[in-house]
Design brief:
With 742 residues, the protein is of the alpha/beta class. The strands form 2 sheets. It has a 7-stranded parallel sheet with strand order 3-2-1-4-5-6-7, sandwiched between helices. A 6-stranded parallel sheet has the order 10-9-8-11-12-13, with helices on both faces. 56% of the residues lie in helices and 8% in strands. Helix 16 packs antiparallel against helix 17 and helix 20 crosses helix 21.
């Protein structure tokens, strides 16, 4: 055994001790330092290293004793100096441990550093980071370590890069913890440069809003960012949407208007104006303002088309996709709206190809072609969506996942903007897919997965409802790309097909679609049914007589159109002892004012209106539909899932059919359930059907009986047969692709 005395004349005994430490021979190294203390009791560093070696052996009490002995008999000045030296020794070892991912030991060492130097703010930040690395971080850590107080006082200077790293880690690991907002606020005083901090906070806020579905927390975070950059239009645009989604409607409108005043370029103005429209529509009650904003939007979009090419960045390019969203909510005029949509999508895709040329070169299918296999091969189908959960798209698309033929099709699910997989997603999508991926935000990792999975057909379920999905599809990582469900066709040149049926689009529709319309033989959508809960509504609790006729309107604020509301009031006026129940996500007081004003203008007493609260679940919502005698559909944007639910519950529906996809959803569903009573082709017919169904109880019963019987025979309720038709379409698409590529 080597001893200190025997190597006293050699300078390398400490080197040997260090090598023993590196090799993990802590006992031998500690022995050397014990001998060194005997030989040189006044050399304090011997005590620091001995304590460290004892700590590494799990002898915490003995380690602290060694350090205490080293500190003994020193005046305050010396103790302060010695403490600094001890911290350096411990920090060096902690950093070494972190370098090879021994986070648990690094965490333990830094905890002892904290006991020696409790106000070392950077050490506290390292402790937080290591707690996250070893997955033991809790909200209590932020308060028990005193880190929020230390940062808030600004007496201690934190390493800005380290603070930014820890902030990003906390927001990613535990964004919903109660102390997060206080921690973020405390970080603001140390935010250098501020842009780096706002970028990290806003990225987290976006994920929190759309992955965790917590827009109120997201708005709180965005408000903190505005303290650093009060006129940052990108922050304000997100904040306006957060306000709207968290039902802070007035703030949403105010912030959206501010965005527009700050917008400098045409694309910025178009997107800011679309947020204004969104804020008005989500709140309800701003009809004249909404119409003026839509007129301005059409002018802005046409100006963009006229003045292209424009020098715009990637973010502005993606936002272009969303700038056309509200046009079909106001007018049923696809021959005007669709060309604008198509041209804007084409321009946005062109710009993506320019500014993302490296991504296009790496991930576009045509640039990395795979050998074509026989047409009889097992097809790889990838479904991409941010709605594979309890959402209208999720409730419908779950059935195709359940019924797919696993011998002929390999199913992949790409879940965008989801932070975790809930029970619903697990049961319907994960369980029924060959492989499922969950992405908090859509980025290059989605492209990588699609390419590595060698997907044959990508099925987009979102259309232009998510800009990042549009970017992925614009790059085109799969040879065939299809749009189904969602909003309508996106108009992206990279999309090959749009799924429809004989009814949901008129025969002339191909004239204004860039995608090839692929019409399934019966219906473009089918479900096997819906889960129904226990109703929470009763007529007596709403002060409605049992013999009254109850009309029901159940759509969110986006779909409320003044002209359509007037028709509903005319129906109510013509049917004695009738009431209108209104339900849907929007500002409660604004909704009440909007409908009551229309009622007064049409000569209908306001006491015949009832405004319903939100249900806690979709199952209860469906059960509550049973209170209605007739459901009145919206126009020019029909119900979709709400129509399916209405028909499944056996309730007569009145719908106004138009020319655009959004104005024909209920029409195709009624045709595919075998009920034509209630289908109106004009405003006059809409009122006539509403009045007739209100006055003719026998006809309502006949329709209800038809709907009950349809559960056994109708294409709308045969998701298995529908899946076979979709699979046949996929096979034909692939065959066509193979033949065209040879």
């Amino acid at each position: 055994m080597t001893d200190v005395n025997s190597i006293a004349n050699i300078d390398n005994w400490q080197y040997q001790a260090h090598q023993l430490l590196i090799q993990g021979d802590y006992t031998m190294a500690a022995s050397l330092y014990e001998q060194a203390i005997e030989a040189e009791p006044d050399v304090k560093s011997h005590y620091w290293y001995l304590g460290l070696l004892l700590l590494l052996q799990g002898q915490e009490t003995e380690a602290q004793t060694a350090w205490w002995l080293g500190m003994a008999q020193g005046d305050p000045e010396k103790v302060e100096l010695w403490t600094s030296d001890l911290v350096k020794v411990l920090q060096t070892e902690a950093e070494r441990r972190e370098s090879f991912a021994d986070y648990q030991m690094a965490w333990a060492i830094r905890q002892h550093m904290r006991q020696v130097s409790p106000r070392d703010i950077n050490n506290l930040l390292h402790i937080i980071q290591l707690s996250i690395n070893v997955e033991k971080f809790t909200d209590e850590d932020l308060t028990s370590l005193g880190i929020i107080n230390f940062l808030s006082t600004e007496e201690l200077v934190a390493d800005a890069n380290l603070l930014l790293q820890v902030l990003e880690s906390i927001l990613d690991y535990a964004p919903g913890e109660p102390s997060i907002l206080k921690f973020v606020e405390a970080c603001l005083g140390h935010a250098h440069p501020p842009e780096a901090f706002t970028d990290v906070i806003m990225l987290a806020a976006i994920s929190i809003a759309y992955s965790l579905r917590r827009p109120t927390l997201a708005s709180d975070l965005a408000e903190l960012c505005l303290r650093l950059e009060p006129k940052n239009i990108k922050i304000l645009m997100h904040l306006a949407a957060f306000y709207q989604d968290s039902r802070q409607y007035s703030k949403g409108i105010e912030t959206a208007k501010l965005c527009y005043t700050l917008a400098k370029t045409l694309p910025e103005q178009a997107f800011a104006n679309s947020i204004i429209i969104r804020s008005f529509m989500s709140a309800t009650g701003y009809w004249e303002e909404s119409c003026l904003a839509v007129q301005r939007q059409c002018w802005l979009l046409n100006s963009i088309i006229k003045h292209w090419p424009l020098n715009i960045d990637g973010v502005s390019t993606l936002r272009l996709f969303l700038s056309t969203f509200f046009l079909p909510y106001f007018t049923d005029n696809p021959s005007y709206n669709r060309p604008i949509q198509n041209k804007i999508s084409q321009l946005a895709q062109n710009n993506i190809e320019i500014i993302s040329k490296e991504l296009v070169a790496e991930y576009r299918f045509s640039s990395v072609p795979r050998p074509l296999k026989a047409s009889s091969k097992v097809l790889k189908i990838g479904y991409i969506s941010h709605c594979l959960r309890k959402h209208s798209v999720g409730w419908i698309s779950r059935w195709i996942f359940q019924h797919h033929n696993r011998e002929q099709f390999q199913i992949y699910a790409y879940m965008i903007n989801q932070s975790h997989i809930g029970d619903f997603s697990q049961q319907w999508f994960v369980k029924n897919a060959y492989t499922t991926y969950v992405f908090k935000l859509a980025g290059t990792e989605v492209l990588e997965r699609i390419q590595q999975d060698e997907i044959d057909i990508i099925v987009d379920l979102d259309s232009i409802t998510l800009d990042s999905s549009c970017q992925i599809l614009a790059i085109k990582p799969a040879p065939i790309q299809v749009t189904w469900l969602g909003w309508d066709a996106s108009g992206l040149p990279s999309i090959d097909y749009f799924i429809a049926d004989p009814y949901v689009l008129p025969d002339s529709a191909q004239d204004y679609y860039t995608e090839t319309i692929w019409r399934l033989p019966q219906t473009y959508v089918a479900v096997d049914g819906f889960e129904v809960g226990v109703p929470s509504l009763r007529r007596d609790l709403l002060n409605i007589n049992s013999d009254a006729v109850v009309y029901f309107v159940t759509q969110k604020g986006y779909k409320r159109h003044l002209d359509n509301a007037r028709l509903q009031m005319r129906i109510l006026k013509e049917v004695p002892n009738s009431y209108l129940l209104v339900k849907g996500e929007a500002d409660k007081e604004n909704t009440k004012t909007f409908f009551e004003q229309v009622a007064e203008e049409e000569g209908v007493a306001c006491d015949r209106l009832r405004f319903l609260p939100f249900e806690v679940s979709e199952e209860v919502h469906r059960a509550n539909l049973g209170i209605a005698d007739i459901v009145l559909d919206t126009y020019p944007y029909n119900g979709a899932t709400t129509t399916l639910e209405t028909l499944w519950m056996g309730i007569p529906l009145v719908t106004r059919v138009g020319q655009q996809f959004a104005a024909r959803n209920s029409y195709t569903m009624m045709m595919n359930v075998g009920v034509t009573e209630g289908i109106a082709w004009t405003d006059e017919e809409y009122v006539e059907w509403g009045v007739r169904l209100g006055k003719d109880a026998a006809l309502r019963q006949q329709i209800a009986w038809k709907l009950r019987q349809s559960r056994q025979t109708a294409p709308l309720w045969n998701a298995k047969q529908f899946t076979r038709e979709m699979e046949k379409a996929y096979g034909q698409m692939w065959q066509r692709y193979v033949e065209s590529s040879q």
